[in-house]
Write a structure and sequence with these properties.
single chain, 524 residues, 0% strand
Amino acid sequence: MEQLILIVGLLFATVVAVGLGDKLRLPYPVLMLIMAGALTFIPGFPDLRIDPELILPIFLPPLLFATAQKSSWAVFRVRWRTILLLAVALVVVSTAMVAGAAWLLIPSIGIPAALALGAMCAPPDPVAVESIAGRVHMPRRLITVLQSEGLFNDAAAIVIFQAAVASAMDGEPFGLGVVGKFLLGAAVAVVVGMIMGWVTGLITKLIASSVARSAVTLVVPFAAYILAEEVHASGVIAVVVTALEIKRHARAEDAAERITRAAFWDVVELLVTGLAFGLVGLEVREVIKAEGAAIWGMLPMAVAVSLLVIVVRFLWFGLLALLSRKNDGELPPTSLKDVVILTWCGMRGLATLALALALPAVLPSGEAFPARHEIIVVACAVLLTTLVLPGLTLPWLMRVLKATDDGAEEQEAAKLLALRAQEAAVAALHNNDLIKNLPPEKLALVKARMQRLQVELLDGSLKNESADERRRRGRELAIAVQTIALDAARAEVLDARNEPDADPEVVDRVLRQLDLRTMIMPES
């Protein structure tokens, strides 16, 4: 019962942290971590023990699914080089550099254990980045880079970690076979994700209730993750591909489902994120308590590795900026300002903590795992350094660098997309027999509504009309607008999602406005 009370308390604290974060303009995941860590100082505070092997399967699927829904295949087609350089190459380089430093600083750690530490410290957390970067009006082009990096880097880190631990347990050398294992696991995971996306589409066609169809999307991420892990593939990649496939097959007529699902996932993402970072705070405190006074002797190496992680990320993005300038590239980073911001957003989180806690305690011979205490302390230090400090100072950094996005570019993209939606709606009405047969006064009302559609999509408002005025419009207008014009407009917006230069956030915003009008207009 104590653990249930603690979980409910953390969920309630999440709501409080969100409100407090809005007032203080601070990210609520960081506030949750700090609040949870502080709570453990209270005498008699109950312990919450979660099997380390369950941390990733419980928290990663829903959070990755929620983040992936904000992207699209078009983004990956355009940014595949960036994804490879960040989600794979940077993880490998960071792992190697941290492993080298650990091998020099920690006596008798051994190469496999050092590589395991490097894999823990390498991947930034997409959940932390999304929760923090989105609240400081960061330019969309930078957020897209961080999202793309975060969706796949966990997979590379987990494969390296598992291979390193297996090498330490078996006593066999760490080989290049890990590359083949990663590629094979990624390929199988893509197939699993495609299948799960198809199965989800099939199930939703058989279910009439929009609430039930939204509930299916909560089960699917866990199913994709578990299925992929069971066939020794990457659960992370499977979940991401599943989300992208579900989004790719979205239909124009599913307005009610999209509205229900969006509201449902907003709540799920908020509560699960808060709970996850609350548990991170509790576990970090438990590590500190378990190590006791010995932790002070480990702090120098922990600080050194934390700084190394930041420096490696800065140098890597600096190299990408130089290459981008040399090739006249438009993809960030393209300036020192971009490099600093992207470096500061290299926040570690759930994956780092879960891998640290999943480290075996003893070898098959009965001996203790090499330098296990030092590895856990260093990993937690990297987590705190890269999450708490940047999370609290990112708003200040954005103001100093004058990098806050005023939304002008995004608004311009929204205007163009809204105009396309309006033109598609008008074109659909132009030659439709139903509209041609409407009385002149009804036809005038339809044309007036379509002429105002672009403005309504951008400001998100509907004209406040009395009940008599709504009744006066009549059922013919509702049917015409809903079934003909708005279907065409939504289809145009959905098609735009697959274009290479499309911004998924803009597409989703305009689509949501269209869906809202579809839900409201039948009541006219």
